Amino acid sequence: MMSPRVLMFPLVLAIAFTIAAPIGLPLHATDWVSTQLIGQTDVTPTAAVDWTPALFVVIGIVSVLAMIIGLKLNAFLALILSALVVSLLVGYDQGTDAGDRMNAVVSAFGGSAAGVGIVIAMAAIIGKCMLDSGSADRVVRTAVNATGEKNASLGLMISGFILAVPVFFDTVFYLLVPLARSLYRRTNKNYLRYLMAIATGGCITHTLVPPTPGPLLVAAILGVDIGMMMLIGAAVAIPAAIVGLLFSIFVDKKMTIEMRPLGANEERHQPLEESKLPGLFASLLPVLLPVALIGAGTLATTLADREDRAALLVSDVESFDLFADKFASATQSSPAGRILASENLSDDDRARLKTTATSDEEQSRVVEIVNTALLDKDFYEPSAFADVPMPKVTSDLMKTDQVRMKPVDRRRMNRALLDAAYPELIAPHQWDSPMRQTAQSLGLWSNPNFALMLAALAAMLTFKMVRSLSWRELGIDVEEALMSGGLIILITAAGGAFGAMLSQTGISDTIQNFFAGKQAAGVAVLLLAWSIAAVLKVAQGSSTVAMIVGAGMMAAILGGTQPPFHLVYVATAVGSGSLMGSWMNDSGFWVFTKMGGLTESEGLRSWTPLLATLSLVSLATTIVLSFLLPMAG
């Protein structure tokens, strides 16, 4: 078996590359990237970048690895303590009270638990009920009869690949893990291969194929059509999934792992004979029900977002003469002044707004410029809107996560402000279209927490009927499932808190400043996009955040420059980079290890290199496709 130190080397190397410049190590990697790959000109010297956040991130990495691998400390304690260490360092640097920094950790832990708590609890119930009722065994038997035992892992990979398009990876993994465990009971081998096959299919589409939020937002930020992103994203994902499955087979042979019980009494119920197993529909219902509900909501929301009802139309402007006057006489502290101050606009755009548009073409151009400005995250400024009543939709959206906000929602937030500022000039937009109302009506049913609750109830009823259990006996089994799920919730939430504290160091700003001013051409654009997303992923743990920030940075770096291929390849390069370097600050790492019953060391030797493989193959496929099918312009 390969040493954990050997298998962790790529992660350590990535971290070393990230911090080489600030600490002055003689790696010369950053110089090589700057001169050979990026081709930068007039770049701000790296000495101007504040590397303190990078130092805090390194301390956090060393802390959590030392506690878990070196001291063998419980993962929950190690993550919470490391989160507190990083938080206190941030407080010291910013002059914040230590008590406030402790509250920041608690708040981040609570936010993470709120996001995963119910889902993991329901998934634990679903998993136990499907295993003990024989539902998972029925599904596995049917699949093996159709594909053959040798191709069972291929079936799991394809299932994860398809299901993760409308559903988050963690939900897909929760739903398919019972099948992997039942398959191991049937074959008594290849358990790690089955887990990695699910992870392969789920992770690759999660980062490359809309309508999953990450790639959907990347496409919107870079101005790539969603249909094009789905097509090329799938074309990039398929070769990576195939290589990932082959890599899973290789790792499984090198590192044989037996399935371990997730709870104390997991083996309490004896396996059933095939004639007593539940039917295929009842067995599949706990998996298909949440996928169908969440997928329907995702589809309806995607279609409603494509309508972009908050976008300004030519017919919404009452008078283009008065509209131009507003901009010509605008001060900085006025709503029109905020549009003119947008970094999204050029000097020509500002001049166009100040001149009356007479022709249809000029009016369309003015509306296009305003819509571009309405995507500015800094559009709202209190002094500029002091006399404007704050619309409720704007105040509500301002309280949400601004980093993960979809462009369509940002435009809606800012358009409502513009409507309120100039009611005599601009007709109010109508947000609630029939499709939007359909999406809203599915809000409860497509909520992952509610959908998995229904799935858990379905699994419980099947379990009760097949095993002829009393409600009390069923309650005992459910309680055992929740006890095992509770530990997973604690560890996953602690990992989320640790990642949040790393983000609060300001590492994203440091990375953005480091890459600021760099220019790229040809394949270097793709390498730069991948590198930015990869460094962001290693530093703060979230693939979605790495994709959003990375796409925003690439949009700024490219400006109006069109590379010699379609921008969809920049989007897939960003998505590929967001898979690189997944470790203990990534909630996906803990979902994989704890729901799979693996140790932290086993997770670092399987999950981390698997995602690195998917990342590199996706990047290589992106580069090849950009040459073979550039679709430039």
TrEMBL record:
<keyword id="KW-0813">Transport</keyword>
<dbReference type="GO" id="GO:0005886">
    <property type="term" value="C:plasma membrane"/>
</dbReference>
<dbReference type="InterPro" id="IPR003474">
    <property type="entry name" value="Glcn_transporter"/>
</dbReference>
<keyword id="KW-1133">Transmembrane helix</keyword>
<feature type="transmembrane region" description="Helical">
    <location>
        <begin position="154"/>
        <end position="179"/>
    </location>
</feature>
<feature type="transmembrane region" description="Helical">
    <location>
        <begin position="6"/>
        <end position="27"/>
    </location>
</feature>
<keyword id="KW-0472">Membrane</keyword>
<feature type="transmembrane region" description="Helical">
    <location>
        <begin position="75"/>
        <end position="92"/>
    </location>
</feature>
<feature type="transmembrane region" description="Helical">
    <location>
        <begin position="604"/>
        <end position="629"/>
    </location>
</feature>
<keyword id="KW-0812">Transmembrane</keyword>
<comment type="similarity">
    <text>Belongs to the GntP permease family.</text>
</comment>
<feature type="transmembrane region" description="Helical">
    <location>
        <begin position="442"/>
        <end position="461"/>
    </location>
</feature>
<feature type="transmembrane region" description="Helical">
    <location>
        <begin position="542"/>
        <end position="560"/>
    </location>
</feature>
<feature type="transmembrane region" description="Helical">
    <location>
        <begin position="567"/>
        <end position="584"/>
    </location>
</feature>
<feature type="transmembrane region" description="Helical">
    <location>
        <begin position="229"/>
        <end position="251"/>
    </location>
</feature>
<dbReference type="Pfam" id="PF02447">
    <property type="entry name" value="GntP_permease"/>
</dbReference>
<keyword id="KW-1003">Cell membrane</keyword>
<protein>
    <submittedName>
        <fullName>Gnt-II system L-idonate transporter</fullName>
    </submittedName>
</protein>
<feature type="transmembrane region" description="Helical">
    <location>
        <begin position="514"/>
        <end position="536"/>
    </location>
</feature>
<feature type="transmembrane region" description="Helical">
    <location>
        <begin position="104"/>
        <end position="126"/>
    </location>
</feature>
<feature type="transmembrane region" description="Helical">
    <location>
        <begin position="481"/>
        <end position="502"/>
    </location>
</feature>
<feature type="transmembrane region" description="Helical">
    <location>
        <begin position="191"/>
        <end position="209"/>
    </location>
</feature>
<dbReference type="GO" id="GO:0015128">
    <property type="term" value="F:gluconate transmembrane transporter activity"/>
</dbReference>
<feature type="transmembrane region" description="Helical">
    <location>
        <begin position="48"/>
        <end position="69"/>
    </location>
</feature>
